[in-house]
Design goal:
Layout (H helix, E strand, L loop, with lengths): L1 H19 L24 E9 L18 E2 L8 H17 L6 E13 L3 H4 L4 E13 L5 E9 L2 E3 L3 H8 L4 H18 L9
Length: 202
């Protein structure tokens, strides 16, 4: 019986020592110390300039369908150079929004339009839809030119009025151009005050 008892005791001792070794990985960490990555803080920008580019390889459509297949659809200005018209809208809206930022780091904001698909006449005065807007945002230090944020794609869609709602909005002065310009001002403000994402997140 003694050999059997010795074997049982030895097995119990080994089991206890194995259990006690499991938590050695976490020993030595201060209580309450977070194991995840660093905290993030919101940027503090002072925008010196907003530079807008509307690439001429974006396809323009003047078709009056419900949803023409194109990158650029715009009816809020008289027929003309749509690239120049959209550049002016972005410059107005983005500059207006960026002017509200009075932070510490001087920056230049580069915006490259990737899509500007507003409503055709047919869609605007019937079913309405969505102003589909996308752009690539890059924030650079104004003095060094170093990239601080981006380049990254920003989706800035806006619900578009249709039918009676569109007519009533125009009577109030809320044309497509007015609404989109103010929307872009709001979007750039939101994008420039967001806390940067941690690069080591997993």
């Amino acid at each position: 019986m003694k050999p059997i008892r010795a074997i049982v005791l030895l097995a119990l001792a080994l089991g206890l020592s194995a259990c006690s070794a499991v938590d050695t990985v976490t020993r030595g960490l201060p209580l309450g110390e977070p194991t995840m990555a660093r905290a993030v803080t919101a940027p503090s920008y002072a925008v010196q300039d907003v530079r807008v580019v509307v690439p001429t390889n974006l396809r323009v459509s003047e078709a009056n369908g419900y949803r023409p297949v194109a990158d650029i659809v715009w009816r809020g200005d008289p027929y003309g150079n749509r690239y120049e018209q959209i550049t002016a809208i972005f410059e107005d809206g983005m500059s207006r929004g960026a002017a509200q930022l009075n932070g510490q780091t001087p920056v230049v904001v580069d915006v490259q339009v990737a899509r500007f698909h507003a409503l055709t006449e047919r869609a605007r005065y019937t079913v309405g839809g969505t102003h589909s807007i996308k752009f690539i945002l890059t924030v650079r230090h104004a003095e060094t030119g170093a990239i601080i944020d981006g380049p990254r794609l920003v989706k800035a869609d806006l619900k578009a009025f249709g039918g009676t709602a569109a007519i009533n909005a125009e009577r109030r002065g809320q044309t497509q151009k007015v609404r989109i310009t103010q929307h872009l001002a709001n979007v750039i403000q939101q994008q420039l005050v967001m806390a940067p994402r941690p690069t080591n997140a997993s």
